[in-house]
Structures are given as structure tokens and as C-alpha cells.
């Protein structure tokens, strides 16, 4: 198979499954760590990191949505995202956030896509 054909096939697949809603560059204004049922201690509960980014649109374009992104402890990048968010907040540095076009994890928070420094 020619390299051009392979490239076109991969490009077609990548665009066919495009699900991200947007990306944003800004500073972390605050972050929260909590379990799903934070009023009761349960070691089997799922943990959440919610981080707020200045200028981020309200979640899922809801009038009462929040300018935050959420990720759970079940996500394979959770520890890396937590470290990145803490570093960005501590250093007062902006970061690049990509969020999905969904609010399934928490109804007033964008679902996590990816994150990085630029």
C-alpha cells in the first residue's frame, strides 16, 4: 500500500471520529478533588478532579453551566492531569485544555479531552 493511500485512510478515520468540542488556553482559577458521594466515606467510590479555567465557556453551553473540566480517577491520565493542574496553578501558568462535546461525567462540567503546556 502506498504511503499516500495509508495517510488518506488514517486522516479519514481521524476526522470520522472527531468528538471534541473545543480547546482553550488559560490559567487554572481553582480545582477541587472529591468523591462522587463526598458526604460518605467509601473506598470503592470514584474520585473526581474538577478544574476551572479562566475564560472557558460554560459547560455544554448551558446558561447555568460552569467553566470547568472534569476527569475521574478511572481515566488512565488522571494522575498526570492532576500533576499538571497543580503545577499550572502553583506556577500561575496558562495551559492548553481540550474538552469533549459532552457533560456526561458531571452535568455542569465539560468532559476531559487532553491537557498540556505550550
From TrEMBL:
Domain of life of the organism encoding this protein: Bacteria
Signal peptide: 1-21
Keywords: Signal
Name listed for the protein in its UniProt record: Uncharacterized protein
